[in-house]
């Protein structure tokens, strides 16, 4: 994929970038390694000051950054602004909490291990390579970078090829806040150039957010080199509606859950399992809500969601819908590619989806919901777990026993009750099965790239 900014609203190529040469890549790895040695000896207070300064820069430049995000990947200007400010909040959160999260711990009494003193330190590990996707170009990167830098690691960002200007902005941001040169830099390289970087002894670990194929490729290269990875991959998250739920509210937020970010979110709800007793009521309200959304100009405040980010992305979505319809699925809303410039795709609802259809199992990265009628809670849970993915879930019920069962039995990294799945700086985020492993955010996330080092004293 060429490294270029192409406006998804028009399909127009705006700017193309030459990949970094091997010498330019080497220069950045060397700078990251040198910065690590420097950063590891700074205090939390120093790093927090630089992190807060970088957050302040981001907030001051929110209009410019939001415009860049909208231009490169098509989300609405309002949601691009929200993402930018959320990223700054996340930076401040780790500035405030990193020292507490990484405070040395005493796992048992010293006397229990014949020591006079015992502690576990959480030290940085070095240069971490971050392979990031285009769907939340800022937030996905910041949620790695803020904890990693606060822990004393340095980062090399390989961003998606369709968001190069966002990548270059991020590559300067932390140094502008005061971090030493080399602490966080962008490598303009293509996906295929990533795996060989894991052979470099200076790069100690990698994190990737994106497709299963890309994650497996990076994990394979890291595994060969005995290096740690954190993977945040796709999802086919469920949205379960049970009879005691507030059906109108569930239907309203069910629409948001599916069309947020034009449906291009790993934690967007994709499979809707609705109890037979409330199915008809939910379907009517949900389909009406989906049909009322406006896929259009991302700079217009009346737009619900913008175009899909890439032409290939839209083709993938349409292929999944065509495959399902060809095998007998019913289209309750949307389903047709509009005859206009840009990579727009309407909010779409499918019913009658069966296991022989690709969309039954595959992740659809666009605003397409599959509605299923289920007989009871047991069937909802069983069908939810019959998936290769397990990222998160949104469940709607006011029955306390059902809430306990769903929390325990849904096979995913999150269960959100009567609300949308979301990421918060202080709450762990990640999945099971093909959705990946490891956690981002919170104390769990910041510790992923640290060395839990035992210091035992006789
Ligand atoms: P990719 O997984 O291809 O891209 C994500 C990142 O991985 C990009 O930086 C990409 O670089 C890089 N990459 C791609 N292939 C490799 C590789 N072999 N080795 C190392 N890095 C690689 O996602 P796409 O944008 O192509 O989207 C495809 C599907 O992935 C979506 O339909 C969705 O299912 C899933 N996805 C999930 C996301 C999530 O949030 N979990 C985010 C994005 C996608 P480059 O751009 O240069 O190829």
UniProtKB/TrEMBL annotation:
Domain of life, source organism: Bacteria
Domain Aldehyde dehydrogenase positions: 3-455
UniProt key word Methyltransferase: no
A Pfam family that the UniProt record links to this protein: Aldedh
Keyword line: NADP, Oxidoreductase
InterPro entries reported in the protein's UniProt record: Ald_DH/histidinol_DH (IPR016161), Ald_DH_C (IPR016163), Ald_DH_CS_CYS (IPR016160), Ald_DH_N (IPR016162), AldDh_AldH (IPR054988), Aldehyde_DH_dom (IPR015590), ALDH_GabD1-like (IPR044148), GABD/Sad-like (IPR047110)
Cited SUPFAM superfamilies: ALDH-like
Family: Belongs to the aldehyde dehydrogenase family.
Identification of the protein by name: Aldehyde dehydrogenase family protein
């Amino acid at each position: 994929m060429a490294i270029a900014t192409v406006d998804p609203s028009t399909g127009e190529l705006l700017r193309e970038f030459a990949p970094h040469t091997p010498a330019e890549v080497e220069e950045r790895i060397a700078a990251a390694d040198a910065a690590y040695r420097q950063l590891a000896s700074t205090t939390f207070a120093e790093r927090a000051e630089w992190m807060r300064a970088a957050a302040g820069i981001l907030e001051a430049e929110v209009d410019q950054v939001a415009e860049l995000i909208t231009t490169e990947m098509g989300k609405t200007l309002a949601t691009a602004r929200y993402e930018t400010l959320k990223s700054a909040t996340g930076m401040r959160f780790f500035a405030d909490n990193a020292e507490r999260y990484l405070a040395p711990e005493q796992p048992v009494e010293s006397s229990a291990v014949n020591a006079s003193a015992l502690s576990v330190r959480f030290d940085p590990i070095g240069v971490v390579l971050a392979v990031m996707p285009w769907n939340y170009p800022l937030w996905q990167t910041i949620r790695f970078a803020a904890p990693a830098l606060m822990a004393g690691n340095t980062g090399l960002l390989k961003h998606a090829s369709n968001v190069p200007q966002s990548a270059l902005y991020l590559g300067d941001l932390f140094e502008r806040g005061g971090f030493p040169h080399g602490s966080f830099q962008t490598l303009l390289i293509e996906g295929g150039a990533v795996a060989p970087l894991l052979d470099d002894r200076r790069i100690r670990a990698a994190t990737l957010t994106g497709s299963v194929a890309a994650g497996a490729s990076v994990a394979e290269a890291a595994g060969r080199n005995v290096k740690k990875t954190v993977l945040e991959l796709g999802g086919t998250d469920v949205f379960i509606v049970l009879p005691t739920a507030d059906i109108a509210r569930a239907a309203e937020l069910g629409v948001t859950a599916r069309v947020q970010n034009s449906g291009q979110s790993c934690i967007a709800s994709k499979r809707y399992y609705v109890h037979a007793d409330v199915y008809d009521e939910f379907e009517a309200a949900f389909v009406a809500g989906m049909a009322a959304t406006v896929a259009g100009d991302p700079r217009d405040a009346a737009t619900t969601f913008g175009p899909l980010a890439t032409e290939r992305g839209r083709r993938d979505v349409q292929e999944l819908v065509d495959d399902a319809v060809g095998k007998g699925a019913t289209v309750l809303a949307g389903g047709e590619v509009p005859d206009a410039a840009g990579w727009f795709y309407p909010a779409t609802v499918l019913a009658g989806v069966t296991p022989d259809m690709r969309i039954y199992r595959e992740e659809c990265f666009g605003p397409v919901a599959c509605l299923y009628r289920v007989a009871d809670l047991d069937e909802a849970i069983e069908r939810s777990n019959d998936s290769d993915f397990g990222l998160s879930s949104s469940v709607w019920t006011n029955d306390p026993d059902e809430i306990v069962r769903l929390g325990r039995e849904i096979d995913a990294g999150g269960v959100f009750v009567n609300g949308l799945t979301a990421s918060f700086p202080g709450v762990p985020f990640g999945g099971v099965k093909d959705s990946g492993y490891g956690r981002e955010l919170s104390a769990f996330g910041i510790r992923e790239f640290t060395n839990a080092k035992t210091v035992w004293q006789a």
